[in-house]
Amino acid sequence: MRPPARGGARLLSCAGLAAALLLPAALPARAAPFSGLPTADGTKGQELPGMPSALDPEAEQVACTPASRRQAEKQDWSRQRLDLDRLHRHSTGTGVTVALIDTGVAPDAAGLGGRVTAQGAAGDDCVGHGTFLAGLIAGTGGDSPALAGVAPGAKILALRGTDGRGEAGAGLVAEAVREATAARAGVIAVTVALPRRDAELTRAVAAARRAGAVVVAAATPDPPSRGGTDEIPSRTYWPAGEPGVLSVADMLPSGARPDGSLPTGGVDLAAPGAGVVSGGPRGAGHYLGAGASVATAYAAGAAAAVRAARPDDSAAAVTRRLAATAYPADIPQLDPYAAVTTVLGESGSPVGTDRGSDPVTLRDTSAADRATSRATLFVLLGTAAVLAVLWAAFALPRARARGWRPAGEGGAGNE
């Protein structure tokens, strides 16, 4: 009976090898999970209120975003992904001014005191979104240093690209870009996105680039709070589509875009944009934020860190460095630590690698992820069925030969 046993063992070994080869191919590529991942709905991880990107434009009376009564208990996944603790040993953005074009910034917000310049309406942030983003760019974290921004040594120039309720306008954004250029900001972060190109804004962005500013812009607006995005066609948003502007989209820990993200075409980078923690204009509590605006704030902070570490580099060189050192996934992922520390060769690629810096077309992977999950389930079930059949082919003949007695019984009487 030994030959059948050896044949059965060989069959099982082959089945196991086939399963080992099939399963990795079926499983989607995922980044290492982070414990305590915060989510926007608070059902998992840190339960914090959400930070809106705009207030209801149809409400007769506007109530500003209230102060959060909760504080984060731990560092969120985005800061771990960006390796900010290690980055800050090399650069904190000291000496660089980042112009933030959003809903304004509260100058005395926790973790930002003394480093925010805001004139007129830009110092009154009723929505709270601009202050939230400023914390991601240059916040110290206040009483929570683990929640510091990418460049906690940088300064913020607060500019309004929206009205008091957070509704963006091309004229407001163009004027803000001109003000940032006049103030000689090293980095200009436009965290709002417009659906149509505007000639005035195009000229303002071109002038900012000629003046030596790194211009970073959201690849899409943040998703609408009401209604779905399934019927919205893919399009280019502005000023992210302008030549030389670093276009940034949001990503999940897996590197995929979140469900409900607005579809778009070519972008340069993806950065964390879901379940991100930062402060607001009132109180010392924390909020959760999401969207391409959040990802853009992170990219702007990274640009400030690079400019501080490499003050002689041109704006174009900084932009190329951020793209060339991005993690080489299907959607290139922002890596501030690599951007500051990597040695680039003459071709502009990191030494010892063949990373490219050309923009890519960002694809919506949510449907593919769901299809892959279903395929994985089918592979698992199919593999289990194959193993069961092979086990039966191996075990049943041996059991029949023993007269269906358990293995080991009757062996002494037969000797």
Automatic annotation (TrEMBL):
Residues 93-332 form the Peptidase S8/S53 domain. Residues 38-60 are annotated as: Disordered. The chain crosses the membrane at residues 375-396. Keywords: Hydrolase, Membrane, Protease, Serine protease, Signal, Transmembrane, Transmembrane helix. InterPro entries: Peptidase_S8/S53_dom (IPR000209), Peptidase_S8/S53_dom_sf (IPR036852), Peptidase_S8_Asp-AS (IPR023827), Peptidase_S8_subtilisin-like (IPR050131), Peptidase_S8_subtilisin-rel (IPR015500). The keyword Transmembrane applies. It comes from the Bacteria. This is S8 family serine peptidase. The lineage of its organism: Bacteria, Bacillati, Actinomycetota, Actinomycetes, Kitasatosporales.
